[in-house]
Amino acid sequence: MKPKIIVHGGASRSSNDEPDRKKDVINACKIGYEVLLEKDAVEAVEIAIRNLEASAFLNAGVGSYLQLDGRVRMDASIMKDDLSAGAVIGIEDVEHPISVARRVMESTQHVILSGRLATEFAHSEGFPRYDPRTRPKVNLWMEIMEEFRQKTTYEQIFHVDQYLKEGRFTLGTVGCVAMDSNGRIAAGTSTGGLKMNVPGRVGDSGIIGAGTYCSKYGGVSCTGYGEKILVLSLGKQVVNYLKFRESTNAMGAAEYGIEELNSLHAHGGIICIDKQGNIGYGHNTKAMAMHFIE
């Protein structure tokens, strides 16, 4: 079977840096495909997402937004079609959360590690300490904090949510789905969370079945309004659509997933590969940086 790969850089409002986002997504997809020609799907997914995490224009790894307290906490998950899975939530002081998530999958009996435990696990496994805060993201944090200065912490939490509804904050997550020459599928997702994320808030990207899901029927990575993706268990729903509707393909399943988001008036996007190697994608936002090779 011919290898296939699709990569996304988040569903969002169109912005001035959209060409830079698109360029980095295309580059990550090409690098992932080169890996896919010689190695398996999970290796390609990790490498592609590592390259996305290295982009200052995307919301993952070194591009992550600072949370309300000025710290960066990141989520990532990865899954294979044999239902092996690993994830980290709220991890700090690492450069590539997706690689830590894969290490959780392959070297522990757990699926998800969170917070301080996830960070300690990463460092104990040899991942170097790394501060992912960049000057542009620090400047943005200072700008928004100035706006929030007159509000209590309680009010800040709900004003962040209100800004999200108004579309003032771009949504953004990165992800990849790949199929190798043996027909094996893997999927992964990584994020820095919402702009001005409330410390302790958990979105969809680190949750298996929500932001990421993969089985023998297909693999999915989601991006968008994490709370709504969570309650929908959107990744699992899209794969179930492939499982129970034999007449559909990845594009039909992605369209179904977007319909589910629309039913909750939630913004987002989906990428997908089904067991036949068909590629699917969809979004209900103005933009979703995305690229695929088949």
Summarize the biggest pleated sheet.
7 strands, mixed
How many domains make up the coordinates? Answer: 1
β-strand number = 11
Secondary-structure element series: EHHEEHEHHHEEEEHHHEEE
How far the N terminus sits from the C terminus, by CA atoms, comes to 11 Å
Radius of gyration of CA atoms, rounded to a whole number:
17 Å
The name of the CATH architecture is 4-Layer Sandwich
Features of this protein?
294 residues, alpha+beta, Glutamine Phosphoribosylpyrophosphate, subunit 1, domain 1, four-stranded antiparallel β-sheet, 38% helix, 23% strand, globular
Q: Quick recap of the structure?
A:
The chain has helices at residues 18-36, 41-53, 97-107, 115-124, 135-148, 153-166, 226-232, 234-244, 250-263; strands at residues 4-12, 74-80, 85-91, 112-114, 174-179, 185-191, 212-215, 218-224, 268-274, 279-283, 287-293. It is of the alpha+beta class.
